[in-house]
Amino acid sequence: MFESVLVANRGEIARRVIRTVQRMGLRAVAVYSEADADLPFVREADEAILLGPADPAQSYLDAGKVLEAARLSGAQAIHPGYGFFSENAGFARAVIEAGLIWIGPSPEAIERMGDKINARNLMEAAGVPVAAGTREPVTDLEQAVAAAAGIGYPVMVKTAGGGGGIGMGVAHEEAGLARAFEQASRAAVRFGGTPAILLERYVERARHVEVQILGLTDGTVLALGERDCSVQRRHQKIVEETPSPGVTPELRERMLAAAVRAGEAVGYLGAGTVECLVDTDKQDFVFLEMNTRLQVEHPVTELVTGLDLVEQQLRIAAGEKTEISVAVHGHAIEFRVYAEDPRRFFPGPGKIEVWEEPSGEGVRVDSGYTRGNTVTPFYDPLMAKLCVFGQTRAEALERARKAVASFQVEGPKNNLPFCAELLEHSDFTDGNYDTGLVSRMRA
Amino acid sequence: MAEVHAEMVANVWKVLVAEGDTVEEGDTLVILESMKMEIPVLAEDEGVISQLKVAEGDVIQEGDLIAVIE
């Protein structure tokens, strides 16, 4: 096992990775921007190195600076967290070429799954069901119109390079396609680097369900259950739970087997996620994409399996042979606490005047901020993740209500009132919801 | 005369109009970016942009004046 790990990320995920690194007796090195100098992750690391200004391009996304920080600190391995460099094959290669250990799948696996079009074609070849969509990148509107006519409206327009929901849009008819295409193209260039666009059939009332996989050093790929991420706004997740209330045991078995096949098809190593769209009426699913990194919502899987996924990532990256028996029990739900107004979901950065996290049996909070910190407009709005565990879904919901009510945040706008509202909404409490739930609540 | 103010702390990502331009209601004046979200700022009246107070790359605070439409 290596002795020190540089965490190439910020906020809650940097803090969460640092916690496991230190628990394992290893040294944790943080890197940070000027805007983040006062955040807990900087203080809690064994060493912290300033990268540069707030703009990610000059700090967290400056590969030269991150690698230089690793050299200066003597870090032997780099954990990318999620976002930033986590799915950047070029950076993963640069880490390996610098003689360091990349905590993640191989650059080749990142490349093959990072291009959503390639990934879809690869999955189809591996016998995993995929949504109807474009097999080649779409680069102009004329191609998009022709492709959409072939697929049939409504279509989802998204960037082939990914980008966490940014730039995604649904076109219900040809008139709306130009706008969706332009929006996705702009986002592709700004956030994804590649201008390629992908179109696929959009299912109106579907659930977004993903499977957590773990590729071990002996080539085995394990499936650690699923997560239902259907509570979304602007195609970004707000709440995730496991097990999914909308998946039957028979469908679960098929989805987990498909996720294992997906992992095996790319020789996957470490933690990854296979995202699917589930048509609950038909109890059927299609592959959407694979995320070759740790997910924001990994804690719910940890709560029901008892595993520490970051520890597994570190052990696998160190080449250790691990034997894991997967046993899932209970129910876990995560609420993303965003700095945004709870009605329109518009960003609401600001200085945190009050910050009191809930605690108690079955409650876990992964936060990136504390009282006195300022939530700035430079990064995503996630302030914390409130996770609850119960023996049953009903118990988890009850604990969630209490925890949401006792989570005190003043200063930045926050979506805790939305979480409280959701916990009283019968579609959610019945477990009978789909990706359109939030839009219907705000219609 | 209508003043257009910022609703939140944000970076000015794109400025789509110049002083002297004529705008219609609903035209996008600037695109702000905050927390990885693009927020278009729209004209709520028609008229001429008599003052434009922001430039691309600025960081503006809640309540800051963005433009004046006459």
Automatic annotation (TrEMBL), chain A:
InterPro entries: ATP-grasp (IPR011761), BC-like_N (IPR005481), Biotin_carboxylase_complex (IPR050856), Biotin_carboxylation_dom (IPR011764), Biotin_COase_C (IPR005482), CPAse_ATP-bd (IPR005479), PreATP-grasp_dom_sf (IPR016185), Rudment_hybrid_motif (IPR011054). It is an enzyme of class 6 (ligase). Residues 1-443 form the Biotin carboxylation domain. Keywords: ATP-binding, Biotin, Ligase, Nucleotide-binding. Pfam families: Biotin_carb_C (PF02785), Biotin_carb_N (PF00289), CPSase_L_D2 (PF02786). SUPFAM superfamilies: Glutathione synthetase ATP-binding domain-like, PreATP-grasp domain, Rudiment single hybrid motif. GO terms for molecular function: acetyl-CoA carboxylase activity; biotin carboxylase activity. Transmembrane segments: none annotated. Its EC number is 6.3.4.14. Residues 120-318 form the ATP-grasp domain. PANTHER family: CARBOXYLASE:PYRUVATE/ACETYL-COA/PROPIONYL-COA CARBOXYLASE, METHYLCROTONOYL-COA CARBOXYLASE SUBUNIT ALPHA, MITOCHONDRIAL-RELATED. This is biotin carboxylase.
Automatic annotation (TrEMBL), chain B:
Residues 1-70 form the Lipoyl-binding domain. SUPFAM superfamilies: Single hybrid motif. Keywords: Biotin. Gene3D superfamilies: 2.40.50.100. CDD domains: biotinyl_domain. This is Biotin carboxyl carrier protein.
